[in-house]
Amino acid sequence: MAKEELKIGEISKPRFEYRSFGRCFKKQAERMARLSVPVPEKVWERKSVETYIVSRTNDVNNTKIRDGKMDIKTFVQNIDGFEQWNPLMKGEFPISAEVLKNDVFPAFKVNNLPELQQATYTLDEFLTIIKNHPDLQAVTVEKLRYGYMVNDTICETGDVYINGAKVVTINSESTEVEDLKKTVQDTGLEGFENINYLQAIKRVIGMIDKPLAN
Fold it and tell me: Phi, psi at residue 171, to the nearest 5°?
């Protein structure tokens, strides 16, 4: 079966991902830019502000909110060190208590969640629930990302501000693990830990006592 042709900025079947976070990936970023084929102008530079909901007891469901919309992805498998994540749910604020109870709260894997007294909740009301729970935290993540395409893998470098603390990220993702392996090797990223956003955020805010890749 022929492999799927990836198109940057478009949805494909679930991808495997390599990503790392640290202080500097200058040499690797320069190689990524030089090796890249031309990409659409819309992905040359992208800015976003997102809110991630992190839980002390969950590392398999990734919940983020952007532009009033909630997106939860769940970990599927790890093949040769590359993680695959699938969509678990999508929602929009105001959001129903039923969706919070049945879909959102279970993803956090925490106890002692409050009884929901309203039929729907605004984003601010939802964030108040998060703030009042000892095992949950809402984290503001600002992203400035630059897109590339290397070895038919979708790549990016970027500056990420996690509650104002700046870190640098570099990434490659594809439906094909072998293409990812080649990109990691060609860009000089071998030896850097593969860290997803959940892990990076938890390390920066002190929820996990472990440093980033460099």
Answer: -150, 150
Structural domain boundaries of the chain? 16-205
Determine the length of the chain. Answer: 214
Architecture of domain 16-205: Beta Barrel (2.40)
pLDDT given at position 14:
86
- CA dist 157 → 53, 110, 140 (Å): 23, 33, 19
Angular region, 42: left φ>0, alpha ψ -120 to 50, beta rest = alpha
Take residue 197 and report the two structure tokens written for it. 């956003």
Are the beta carbons of 149 and 121 closer than 8 angstroms? no
Nearest Cα to 91, choosing from 57, 64, 60?
Answer: 64
Are 46 and 160 spatial neighbours (Cβ–Cβ below 8 Å)? no
State the CB neighbour count (10 A cutoff) for residue 198.
23
* C-alpha–C-alpha distance, residues 200 and 116, integer Å: 31
Strands 165-174 and 153-162, bridge-based pairing: antiparallel
Distance (Å, rounded) from C-alpha 99 to C-alpha 103?
A: 5
Which stretches of the chain drop beneath a pLDDT of 70?
Answer: 1-12
* pLDDT the model gives residue 1: 43
208, two tokens: 């996990």
